[in-house]
Design goal:
There is one protein chain. The chain has helices spanning 2-10, 15-55. The chain is mostly helical and 64 residues long. The protein starts with a helix and ends in a 9-residue tail after the last helix. The relative contact order is 0.05. The model has no long low-confidence stretch (mean pLDDT 86). The chain crosses the membrane at residues 20-39.
Length: 64
């Protein structure tokens, strides 16, 4: 049994595949995080812009 665990611990076959799976999962996770932040930030910005435009006064442009 100990021989099996030693052989398993030092076996590097498939290690690159595992690295790519972990790296891909990290990139996807970060992507979801960025999308979540952008969506919530855009809503707040849109609300502030809407309030600002409602309070704005429109003036006539006079050209001489």
């Amino acid at each position: 049994m100990i021989k099996f665990f030693k052989k398993f611990a030092f076996n590097t076959e498939g290690a690159i595949t595992v690295d790519w799976v972990v790296l891909t999962a990290a990139v996807v996770g970060l992507g979801f995080g960025v999308v979540g932040m952008l969506l919530s930030g855009n809503s707040a910005l849109g609300q502030k812009l809407s309030e600002s435009m409602q309070d704005a006064k429109v003036q006539e442009l006079v050209l001489h």
